[in-house]
Amino acid sequence: MRHFDLKYEERLPEEFSIHHKITKTTEKQNFHMHKQMEIIFALSDNLKCYYENGVIDIPKNGIILFHPMNLHYIFSEKGSGICDRFVLYFSSSYISRLSTPEINLLDCFFSASWAHPSVLSVPESQIQDFLFLLQKMEAYQNMDQNATYGLSLHIQFLLGQFLLLTNELYSKKFQSRRRTALQNHSRMVFDICDHIHKHYDQ
Q1: Which of 18, 68, 192, 201 has the fewest CB atoms within 10 Å, i.e. the most exposed one?
Q2: pTM of this prediction?
């Protein structure tokens, strides 16, 4: 178990982080997972995701969602051009307080199958809405914590808006295919999987 921990788990200290990355290649070329939720918003059309059972293409203006049980890495084909994307990490506890009995903001991380991450295409009419929230979150993250009143709350509210839009897209794509039991008890399912992930060495 120690070998698994050292080889595959990427340790991310922040409760929240967001970065707009424009690089010739992606940084990580090995499988990993982490305790945070991860969202990638692709601004270029050359990003792909290796997961345990295959490869997924991430479309331009597409979103890919990783929960803590997803073993994965992002890559691009050699010579395919610049990799442009927003990468967003946050802990479940950072955002769960904004959920309501009707809307669980973490629900979009429960795809029709736990075996692979969810991929969503953002409609042309909503791209600017998503980009505005991502850019605003990054701007707030880079501000002086002490000089900006309520900075953490600003970021949480923006992330909540982003997840609300994401859940709406997710619901349209997956809702009809999901089992009623998973729909009604997704928070319980996540809590169980989260506990297993945190205590697999026991």
Answers
A1: 201
A2: 0.81
Centre a 10 Å sphere on the Cβ of residue 67 and count the other Cβ atoms it contains: 22
Q: What is the pLDDT of residues 126-176, one digit of tens each?
A: 999 999 999 999 999 999 878 788 898 999 999 999 999 999 999 888 765
Residue 85 CA neighbour count, 13 Å, CB half = 28
| Total residue length of the chain | 202
Distance CA 55, CA 64 (A): 12
- Residue with tokens 């890495």, as numbered in its chain: 73
DSSP summary character for residue 124: G
Structure token digits, residue 109: 């991380």
Longest CA–CA span in the chain (Å) reads 48
pLDDT digits (tens, 9 = 90+) for 8-55: 555 555 789 999 999 988 876 788 888 899 999 999 999 999 988 899
Cβ neighbourhood burial of 54 (10 Å; 0-12, 13-18, 19+) = exposed
CA distance 37 to 18: 12
Taking the C-alpha atoms of residue 5 and residue 19, their distance in angstroms, rounded to an integer, is 25
Each residue of 139-160: b (16+ CB within 10 Å) or e? ebbeeeeeeeeeeeebbbebbb
Question: Which residues on neighbouring strands pair with residue 120, listed in sequence order?
Answer: 63
Nearest Cα to 200, choosing from 13, 51, 69, 37? 69
